[in-house]
Amino acid sequence: MERTFVMVKPDGVQRGLVGEIIARFERRGYKLVGLKMFTMPREVAETHYAEHRGKPFFEGLVRYITSGPVVAMVWEGKNVIAAAREMMGATDPQKALPGTIRGTYGIDVGRNVVHGSDSPASAAREIDIFFKADELLNYERPL
Ligand code: CMP
């Protein structure tokens, strides 16, 4: 079954949006198989955002993502990678549709509340950065 990596960023945690974001995925029907809260070390942030190294916003992005606790999750279910991106809305909250997470709770691309993997390759890479195999749990989720 498909899995994706979703992270509530420091602004989302500080604003008390963790429960709201988890609830949206649960109510949609997706299954939470991994969950942890931590403050990201700088070297992990640089690995996670390696593709943005060299971009003008990279240093600010790393400083922001390491500035406070994040909530990292792995969600499982049919088409969850694309569905999570749709539920989050465009990266820039100004372009995110109303009703999406960023379109409801964000106004600034540098404080966009939540992160989600953008492809199967990214999902595999990001899950591997943040979770050990035995931290991903199997259980029944009756509909
Ligand atoms: P995310 O989906 O976590 O992946 C990369 C992040 O870089 C993105 O969300 C934004 O938060 C951030 N980002 C992208 N473009 C910009 C920008 N122009 N200025 C600041 N941050 C950006």
TrEMBL record:
Gene3D superfamilies: Nucleoside diphosphate kinase-like domain. GO terms for cellular component: cytoplasm. Its EC number is 2.7.4.6. SUPFAM superfamilies: Nucleoside diphosphate kinase, NDK (SSF54919). The active site is at H115. It catalyses: a 2'-deoxyribonucleoside 5'-diphosphate + ATP = a 2'-deoxyribonucleoside 5'-triphosphate + ADP; a ribonucleoside 5'-diphosphate + ATP = a ribonucleoside 5'-triphosphate + ADP; dZDP + ATP = dZTP + ADP. Its cofactor is Mg(2+). It is found in: Cytoplasm. It is an enzyme of class 2 (transferase). ATP binds at K9, F57, R85, T91, R102, N112. One of its GO terms (biological process) is UTP biosynthetic process. InterPro entries: NDK-like_dom, NDK-like_dom_sf, Nucleoside_diP_kinase, Nucleoside_diP_kinase_AS. Residues 1-138 form the Nucleoside diphosphate kinase-like domain. The keyword Cell membrane does not apply. GO terms for molecular function: ATP binding; metal ion binding; nucleoside diphosphate kinase activity. It comes from the Bacteria. It holds the Pfam family NDK. Its main location: cytoplasm. Homotetramer. Major role in the synthesis of nucleoside triphosphates other than ATP. The ATP gamma phosphate is transferred to the NDP beta phosphate via a ping-pong mechanism, using a phosphorylated active-site intermediate. (Microbial infection) Catalyzes the phosphorylation of dZDP to dZTP, when the bacterium is infected by a phage that produces the substrate for the synthesis of dZTP (2- amino-2'-deoxyadenosine 5'-triphosphate), which is then used by the phage as a DNA polymerase substrate. Belongs to the NDK family. This is Nucleoside diphosphate kinase. It comes from Thermodesulfitimonas autotrophica.
